[in-house]
Amino acid sequence: xxxxxxxxxxxxxxxxxxxxxxxxxxxxxxxxxxxxxxxxxxxxxxxxxxxxxxxxxxxxxxxxxxxxxxxxxxxxxxxxxxxxxxxxxxxxxxxxxxxxxxxxxxxxxxxxxxxxxxxxxxxxxxxxxxxxxxxxxxxxxxxxxxxxxxxxxxxxxxxxxxxxxxxxxxxxxxxxxxxxxxxxxxxxxxxxxxxxxxxxxxxxxxxxxxxxxxxxxxxxxxxxxxxxxxxxxxxxxxxxxxxxxxxxxxxxxxxxxxxxxxxxxxxxxxxxxxxxxxxxxxxxxxxxxxxxxxxxxxxxxxxxxxxxxxxxxxxxxxxxxxxxxxxxxxxxxxxxxxxxxxxxxxxxxxxxxxxxxxxxxxxxxxxxxxxxxxxxxxxxxxxxxxxxxxxxxxxxxxxxxxxxxxxxxxxxxxxxxxxxxxxxxxxxxxxxxxxxxxxxxxxxxxxxxxxxxxxxxxxxxxxxxxxxxxxxxxxxxxxxxxxxxxxxxxxxxxxxxxxxxxxxxxxxxxxxxxxxxxxxxxxxxxxxxxxxxxxxxxxxxxxxxxxxxxxxxxxxxxxxxxxxxxxxxxxxxxxxxxxxxxxxxxxxxxxxxxxxxxxxxxxxxxxxxxxxxxxxxxxxxxxxxxxxxxxxxxxxxxxxxxxxxxxxxxxxxxxxxxxxxxxxxxxxxxxxxxxxxxxxxxxxxxxxxxxxxxxxxxxxxxxxxxxxxxxxxxxxxxxxxxxxxxxxxxxxxxxxxxxxxxxxxxxxxxxxxxxxxxxxxxxxxxxxxxxxxxxxxxxxxxxxxxxxxxxxxxxxxxxxxxxxxxx
Length: 807
Fold this sequence. Notes:
Layout: H1 2-23, E1 26-28, E2 32-33, E3 41-43, E4 49-56, E5 59-69, E6 77-80, E7 92-93, E8 98-102, E9 105-109, E10 115-117, E11 126-129, E12 135-138, E13 144-147, E14 155-156, E15 161-163, E16 166-173, E17 176-186, E18 192-196, E19 209-210, E20 217-222, E21 228-232, E22 237-239, E23 251-257, E24 263-269, H2 272-278, E25 283-288, H3 292-295, E26 310-314, E27 319-323, E28 328-330, E29 340-342, H4 353-359, E30 360-365, E31 368-369, E32 374-378, H5 383-391, E33 396-402, E34 407-412, E35 419-420, E36 427-433, H6 444-463, H7 467-491, E37 505-506, H8 509-515, E38 522-526, E39 529-535, E40 543-549, H9 554-568, E41 578-584, E42 587-593, H10 600-604, H11 612-632, E43 637-638, E44 647-649, E45 655-657, E46 664-665, H12 697-712, H13 729-738, H14 750-754, H15 756-769, H16 780-788
Parallel strand pairs: 37-41
Antiparallel strand pairs: 1-11, 2-8, 3-4, 4-5, 5-6, 5-7, 8-9, 9-10, 11-12, 12-13, 14-23, 15-20, 16-17, 17-18, 18-19, 20-21, 21-22, 23-24, 24-25, 26-27, 28-29, 30-36, 31-35, 32-34, 33-34, 33-36, 38-39, 39-40, 40-42, 41-42, 43-46, 44-45
Helix pairs in contact: 6-7, 11-12, 11-16, 12-15, 13-15
């Protein structure tokens, strides 16, 4: 029995030995690493981090010297060595190189024996890869000689501190570790500043964010609780990211100064079960600045994106992207920071006014602005004259017309500081070559002169030529007049779209019959007709959706004209685009862009729940589409039948509003219209059942229902629901909101629960939209601002009735 008495003591000693061995693993003098083989890295005791060689993405024969997260799939790099000479580029070596800890120093040499990198310290006794992600070189006495935490690249980790005169450089690209276009500097004067930087010189332009703590700042701290703050000399702490965003025990954390100039904090679940749920990806939980597109406006340099491009901020994913305006393309599709160029020949300054008007036109672009590129201003002026003055000016590439002030601004290349501005109220017009199928028409005041000149020319020819020539000329003139009248009848509708760029194309019935294979494949049916899938016989084999109005009568004729005229004058990324129409005999057909991912109805109400981020994206995109219809097009449009079936998804699952067959067109000076009840059960606003005018607020009511369906992934009315209280979603959501149990609406949806604050915000917005009194519902502009988090959301009043939603 005596040995048994010592067993617990032995186990305790063994546990202490194991704990001690995991607390530190020393890398001794004589140790080495190579890019290939058994010893490619030194791993921390927890195995969470590794220091060594990582293959450069896209180049299997080149290796980085780096520190990375070792226990996740993508092995995210958090530190990388930079060249000794100028520190602008990451150290990249070929196979056969060697990193060796010897003779009191750490040295990296290429296959020829040339030293490529060293940390410039001596008297090193050993090295250690810590569980914090910090790689250290230590003296024999244990003092720190050098550490990766003191020479950061683009990332910092919990417990890391950046003292004064320390900087983070963004990468040039995700796969190019050269110093990029942005610099985060803890300046020696105590100010924490973010700068755009010139590539490759590194010259800093005007700052786009600063702590404004000159003389007071001391260090940037990423503490062990996951909070990042800037410490001042008096002990004050300025929050850079939120405190306690996620459990440090359950998540890996990092903060990276990304390639787009945003400092983001990321988390990644440590549990393999959670990783499957999260799709094995890092999630951004905070960012500074919130919107880089609007944060940067620099007089020198291109701004957040390259010249002639514009910056788009996706608030749902907290990401930015750089895009080219229409008829422009990137110089380099991979290195988009280089900007865009026109894909057409620049306008010659030798062209006269008439030739310029015949060759170029102004086409509207959706809420894109280059605010610091103006070179000319006119006021007062109308939009027609603003367009003309830009077309005839070879320096002008963009015109911005502000209607309230009747002011016109001309902009020239290169365009800088471009961004997608949702608040922009002006009309932005881009100069592009006139399409061959877009007729050039003089103003109505000059058309009579043109006709008169035409007949004068004809007369002179008639009286000065032979009888045969005269006969031929008369034939041509009369034939041209007849064809002109016939053609004008055909394109009367298409020319109604005055501001939409290219008018809808006119198709023959035989073209569409051939394109649809005899109207064989049905995509869907509606009250006004059947939709078929087709493919145009053009170079790209463009897929189309053809809506055929089969039972043609007077009401259908009216509906057809409304739909053509309405859609033909609208162009927005969140509206289904009308490509053309057929108005031949008794046949009435509409040709739309094909939406490959079907309707929101199909996506949302299936056994597989769409990801939360996608649902948020769709909600914002539908809101922006409605905002355009209600407040931004030339004439206000009320959809009147907003429902998931009328929200279609393209190749990228971007949401677009479709089916304007029930839309009611209002003149600008009208505020409401009285009409028969329209819409679909479950989405109809209460005023449809009352003897009051119908306004755009009916769409806002319907949007509120759709927003709740997106949050909860269920239909508004589910008569088969096991719990009677949950039968009507609008009732149930209101009850959950009033009781403070929003989590019940997204039960089992881990992604939504992780973003519960946004869920609560969306539900609050929906309840505002569902107010029975139309005047209490917000406008779509207010709705988009509340969804984006740009404004505070007051507590919505308790709706008095949802009975109408069952109609």
